[in-house]
Amino acid sequence: MFYNLHDDIGNDIFEHKRDKANRLDDYHYPKFIKGKIKRSAIVCFFLGDENYDIMQEMIAYVYDQINKSQYFSFENDKKIQVFIAVEGMCPIDCDIKNRIKWLKQHKVKTASLVWNDNNKLACGAKSGNMPLSDLGIDAVKYLNEYDITIDISHLCEQGVYDVLKYSSKPIIATHSNAYEMCNHFRNLSDDLLIKIKEQNGIIGVVGVKSFVSNDHNLCNIKGLLLMIDYLKNLIGENNLAFGFDFMDYFGKDNSMIEGLKSCCECDELLTVLNDKYDNDFVSKICYQNVIDFFER
Q1: What are phi and psi of 17, to 5 degrees?
Q2: What is the residue extent of each domain of the chain?
Q3: What phi and psi, each to the nearest 5 degrees, are found at residue 86?
Q4: CA distance 64 to 66
Q5: pTM of the model
Q6: CATH number, domain 2-295
Q7: Contact 84, 63 (CB under 8 A)
Q8: CB burial class (10 A; 0-12, 13-18, 19+) of residue 129?
Q9: In this predicted model, what pLDDT tens digit does every residue of 10-45 receive, in sequence order?
Q10: DSSP H or E run through 150
């Protein structure tokens, strides 16, 4: 099976709340089953201009939809186990502790301080390279306090170093690859990858073309395997996972590598992984490393 650390389904079901009220079960569930996705993040992303009311409305709606679902659950009592993830904490610009506490009460398990923007907490990877603000340092403290894992996938390099400095708990990069293999501004340097590993963090390998290779001929499963090999050789087997970041339900399936356009094709990826690697590593990268991480 797969544990997918990043999928923007929260925004998708929220956008369809009026015309397709049962979209989680009717549309996403069959695809999950075909692709052997048994555990997943349900991400709600915020691009930078949303206020706290909008954040609460979206997360509360997604929380209710999961609780009403026939197939998805926050517990291990239905076919698909999920948690809510927040990408971009721009609406949390004051009353930091109480707003993060509210996230915890709504089953948010991972959160990133920024998207690609700058906000009152931090600087996004596309916007420059600045340290965390005092509010950002406070956010790290309260995310730790409420056991919400900090996701650094959209954070600038200096911000990541600051999170590593101020966080008392391991961090996660839910959907980032290695910069040395593909120089996308959101991929991570070898030094950061090693430091995250040394603190028992997790790197989620992402399947978006621009993150996998700068060579058009390697924007496919072959290129993804080369990325996995590089990361495996650099940080070992116990800190790797998948954060696929599928975009097909937004009409952007062309953003994904060939052979991995949607989660429906994950079953084919599993066949490729089993052909190339031993069973132990396949189990680790597909699901076990993430399960172990959250249990720790």
Answers
A1: -65, -25
A2: 2-295
A3: -110, 130
A4: 5
A5: 0.96
A6: 3.20.20.140
A7: yes
A8: exposed
A9: 999 999 999 999 999 999 999 999 999 999 999 999
A10: strand 149-150
